[in-house]
Inverse folding.
């Protein structure tokens, strides 16, 4: 087992990144109050939920977080936290680990409060990750040709005008947004602040793999960032929590195309919760891929934007720095708000996704993969059993495909 | 010269309709204060701008309307007001004249205040012109196929749901809107409240003439309405003032497609000034015909709507009757706000349009055609002369085509 040097912030951040799933607000609260090092020390050395550190008790008065569950989520992962191998891997990748106390930490992410990331693993042009006029351009993977074209043009024009473009490296609108930005860097000015991709999986697991060409260009002049260790896979729930980083890192968010259940809408809602300006591009009322954009404009007070100048106007009224408010704890929904139709509970879905595709797994191993406590897994498995989605054999279970 | 019986409100309204151009607020103010009969009597019998009726002086304290100009606009048209022939013509057409004191007068038009119409000439199903849930669907003449399809579908769904649809009988979106409504009447329910067309020219001069098929169906189950005498031609400036009737008659206005200089935008702005809810349908950001809609949504607080249900929701918050505010006099712009690029002054354009296409005309005749005073025409002609747009010979002038 790796022995953490609590005086080494890189090791501390790396360990936190191994113990928790993104957006675990118990970890955010604990490290926010105690600091990452002291918080980690308490988890690894004592971790008695009946004896919470006095600072934590004082600062979180009235909050009844399930500390026991939290500790049970984190501790089983300690033994598997192969920090040394991860650092070696990161070095081979030419990457860098960033921790919150570092002077280059992008402070706008702290607007997420207890949902702020605990570490950022990066590859590419590290100097990009500074607070400045970043716009996120997000949207559907199943975008239309027109949507792709618009995203690329918007991105090109924005980068040309001195903005930076953030997206998620996915197919469709994300790809078009990154490409538009990279075109400025390759054809107009090699010094152009181009583009950052926030990834759901680790920076050694760039996904989707067929986007290799895009990722190579991103690693060359852009930046790829993730809050999970380099080797971790992009599990489905990590896409949803990743969206909050895109929203918080950017000073403004624009949805180019989105169906009514698109993850891009989650990004937009995160940005709205953070007080960041949000824009959406309209489209034909007959295009499913514009339904989400129209809904944002109609119902959420999102600004209709049709070109880069109008996107730039979203920044009017923002100060030189970022002025968005922090996420009010009571206003924040779970990071797992979008549940597919097959599951009516995000934890149930996460457990099901954490099961191997074929074959069986113990509750303990499922808990580690999902980043949940064994009792949370057990409760979820019971519900999945009733729903006919899993079979259970003693302390093991397996998926049933209907 | 026709001798008006001041006790006959039909004759009085018909005469007013002959003397003034639509939206002449001096006439609106005069008849609003004195009543149509007494106002007309003053104009025809005394008309000394130095001796305004005492009621008018008291009621319009502080307003310095150019009464002398107004009277000079109106009086030259008295001799040509062939009221008897117009009534005969109306009878042949099976039409009807409506005046403001009539119990069936659509009272919502009075929200226009001093810009309210002085008479309404109608053909078709007279019972339609009642205050109820009327929606105006307006938009570009040079609409896209998609826009036409949407307008027809919206209109069909709205009429099917019990709303009535108002438009302007023009090519493009207007036609599609009327057709969608008429389809409900012909295919679903013959009792469906279908559709009203407000015309810029007289109801005997239905324009464009190539829309004969549409107009025949409108006359059969819908209604055609105009504030100018039946034989008057649809001069260009009358389209702009006609738009205010569409806005005021309807409880809500929806722009389906509109370029950035479309007259439909004027209708939307009138509706906004009246406190009526306004919606606009989004479209591809690459479609010029959606630019105006996007501008309304972005800059004017207009609601994005994509289907009939959302249009219906525009009525939420409105009472059973119409609750829009009256046009505040100081907030109202001239009815002639949209000037084509060739003219920087709407009166200059109106004078130019009132000139015969070929050949010359006296200042006096131009004044009658344009509904302006001779001194207004004279000033405009001077400016047009300097601009090289007209030639002048003594008291006559003619167009120059560059």
């Amino acid at each position: 087992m790796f022995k953490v040097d609590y005086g080494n912030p890189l090791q501390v951040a790396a360990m936190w990144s191994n113990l928790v799933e993104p957006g675990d607000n118990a970890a955010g609260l604990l490290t926010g109050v105690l600091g990452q090092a002291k918080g980690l020390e308490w988890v690894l050395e004592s971790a008695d939920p009946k004896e919470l550190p006095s600072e934590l008790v004082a600062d979180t008065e009235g909050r009844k977080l399930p500390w026991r569950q939290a500790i049970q989520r984190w501790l089983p992962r300690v033994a598997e936290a192969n920090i040394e191998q991860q650092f070696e891997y990161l070095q081979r990748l030419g990457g860098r680990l960033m921790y919150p106390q570092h002077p280059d930490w992008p402070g706008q992410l702290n607007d997420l409060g207890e949902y702020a990331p605990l570490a950022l693993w990066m590859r590419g042009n590290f100097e990009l990750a500074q607070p400045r006029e970043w716009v996120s351009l997000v949207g559907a993977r199943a975008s239309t040709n027109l949507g792709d074209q618009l995203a690329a043009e918007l991105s090109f024009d924005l980068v040309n005008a001195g903005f930076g473009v953030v997206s998620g490296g996915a197919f469709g609108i994300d790809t078009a947004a990154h490409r538009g930005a990279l075109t400025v860097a390759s054809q107009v000015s090699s010094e152009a602040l181009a583009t950052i991709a926030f990834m759901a999986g680790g920076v050694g697991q760039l996904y989707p793999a067929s986007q290799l060409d895009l990722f190579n260009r991103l690693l060359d002049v852009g930046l790829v960032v993730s809050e999970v260790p380099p080797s971790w896979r992009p599990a489905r729930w990590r896409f949803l929590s990743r969206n909050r980083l895109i929203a918080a890192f950017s000073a403004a968010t624009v949805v180019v195309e989105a169906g009514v259940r698109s993850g891009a809408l989650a990004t937009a809602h995160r940005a709205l919760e953070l007080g960041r300006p949000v824009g959406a591009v309209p489209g034909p009322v007959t295009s499913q891929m514009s339904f989400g954009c129209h809904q944002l404009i109609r119902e959420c007070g999102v600004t209709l934007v049709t070109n880069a100048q109008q996107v730039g106007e979203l920044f009017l009224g923002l100060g030189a720095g970022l002025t968005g408010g922090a996420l009010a704890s009571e206003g924040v929904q779970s990071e797992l708000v979008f549940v597919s139709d097959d599951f009516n509970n995000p934890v149930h879905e996460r457990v099901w996704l954490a099961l191997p595709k074929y074959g069986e797994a113990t509750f303990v191993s499922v808990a580690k993969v999902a980043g949940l406590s064994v009792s949370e897994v057990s409760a979820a498995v019971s519900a999945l059993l009733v729903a006919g989605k899993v079979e259970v054999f003693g302390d093991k279970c397996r998926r049933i495909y209907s």
In short: The radius of gyration of chain A is 21 Å. The mean pLDDT of chain A is 87.
